[in-house]
Here is the input.
Amino acid sequence: MTTRQYIDDYIHIGHRRRLVQALREKGIKDEAVLGAIGKVPRHWFVGKVYEDRAYEDRALPIGREQTISQPYTVAAQSAWLRAKPQDKILEIGTGSGYQAAVLATMGMRVYTLERQEDLYVKTNTLLGQHRFGSIRCFLKDGFKGLPAYGPFDRILLTAGAAHVPAVLLSQLTIGGSMIVPVGGDHTQVMQRITRHAETEFRSEELGAFRFVPFKEGLVRRAKPVTKALRPPS
Ligand code: SAH
Here is the structure.
């Protein structure tokens, strides 16, 4: 197996400049978000076969039936968070790690959870090899959140949820908010739920999106098939 070379040259930088321009034209105005998207090499977060398409504004497969979110979606979710540098953010659905890298590049402290061990191992390794800022990856079921590290200023769900688990809302600071796509398997409505007081939450609707589903429970790594050795006769 050859180790992957992580190159980021003027061609990639040019592609990113065009992607940032396309996002501006689609209505993204947050300069901190656009700045981070201009810096993070998205082509590192997709498989080699998709590298050439990494700067198109579209979702791409990352294995295990999951996708790296479309850049527009990453930009919109990041802007809707209205987070500031040093804020503690819980991301649920690490996937490729791209969204986490964008937020860490903006200066936020990111805690990110993934339920699939294969993706967790791959992304934790990738994020450990590069300096995007403060990111901690966990192999954990996002339905439970991360109470040991809470409360969080912001929570971001990057999978479509049929409902919002109350336990996640309980891990928000007062004044904190959660960005979450809520709905069925095929389309969801993005919501921002803000915790105004201990038991007072208000939500706003921000538009229709399409995410892979938020599913309960961990998925352990597929074990390689090994043949039992016959004892020497
Ligand atoms: N933010 C990611 C998007 C990945 S797609 C990126 O930038 O690439 C959503 C991810 O959520 C998938 O990897 C999926 O395995 C994960 N996921 C779904 N349900 C989950 C849960 N209950 N806990 C943690 N991760 C979950």
